[in-house]
Specification:
- This protein has 273 residues and is mostly beta strands.
- It folds into three domains: 87 residues, no CATH class; 38 residues, no CATH class; 93 residues, gp9 (Jelly Rolls).
- A five-stranded antiparallel sheet has the order 8-9-10-11-12, with no helix packed on it.
- A hairpin with a 2-residue loop joins strand 11 and strand 12.
Length: 273
Amino acid sequence: MAYIGAKPSDNFRVAPVKDSFTGDGSTTTFDLANIVPAGGENALQVFIDNVRQEPGSGKAYTLGVDGSGDLKRITFSAAPANSAAIYVITSFSNEAFKVFDTNGVELFLDADGDSSITADTDDQIDFKVANADQVKLTDGVLAPTTDSDVDLGTSSLYYKDAYIDSITTTGAINKNTSAWQAKSGTYTAVAGDRLIVDTSGGAFTITLPASPSLGDEVRFLDATASFDTNNLTIGRNSQKINGNAADLTVATESAGFSLVYYNSTYGWRYTEA
């Protein structure tokens, strides 16, 4: 939309936070309640008895980390006098909001306010979607809030790779494969393919995946009982088939079988479909 004058800023600002302390004539370090955002000393206004202090080495104060390594400790070059009123104003922009302590406040993310993130339980982050708790993150554990309630992926949206040390399950583990595909000409397969092959129009070659991994599988089925008259050739694509460094010719009518990859020594191994 049009504006008269300067366009309003796209950034939002959280209300500044004020920390108050009292000098005792000897203490030089004071820890703020919140981590100071990017910008460091430039995000602070430090006052002693209503006189603003200059930051920097050799000046009134420096900003550094506390005992936990958080950027929130102010160290004065000289101890503020006894009973001196010290206050610090910290400004938080949207760039700094990620380090702002929300202290368990629920952060709503969608238009109708029913999807959110909150951390109102110590050492736990809760994710809510459609006004229902879905997933929780604790130290070392990402788990559904309710048992057997959350799917990982869908029947049409798969994760690419999973690297898992071990699997414990109370039900069956199903290896999802592609839907059956009809092939009547040259084709390069991918792991998980299930191919209904029609060689009635002539012999042709289906090439196996180039860089297979342990357990990769490709299934074949003679769709028209034609493998005996028009052979199917399975191209090994640099890998062995049943330990042989040669392509596989399939000449058995109505054959149905799978090839499962083992390793570079034995290559693809034959198993009945």
